[in-house]
Design goal:
The chain is α/β, with parallel strands linked by helices and about 160 residues long. The chain has seven helices and five strands; from the N terminus they run ααββαβααβαβα. Strands 1-2-5-3-4 form a five-stranded parallel β-sheet.
Amino acid sequence: MRFARDHLGHIEKVVVARSVRSAVRGADIICTVTHARDPLVSGDWLEPGQHLNLVGSSTAQFREVDDRAVARGRFIVDSRSNVLAEGGELLHAIAAGEVPTEHIHAEIGDVLAGHRPGRENPDMITIYKSLGHIAQDIAVSNEALRRIGTGDWADRVSW
């Protein structure tokens, strides 16, 4: 609760969940940002219309959700090749026979550009798996530096 008070002051209400399962119940968006080796979220807990951002565990041996969660959701990735190499959630579900490699619906760029649909109905469960892109890291770092008044770091870097 202290973190919420100190860092999320603009949020009107913060509720601290007593368990992962209770945090998932009724949530619109579920973000997993952990280094979990074993699943924290069960696909049996998911409700129609929920969206999951799986942005933590980033090796083939680690996973934040179980195979059922992967199978239940429309699976969108930051990079198809990267997720097929290191996306533990998807790789485990494929190895277990729960989903085929083709379970990847699209890369996020294709959805954002309108080449592939994202959510097609309000009850669809959607999942975004991100292993990270250096471009994202650079953009976030640059914005953080800009906000603290140090200017655009790219002007000071030799390429």
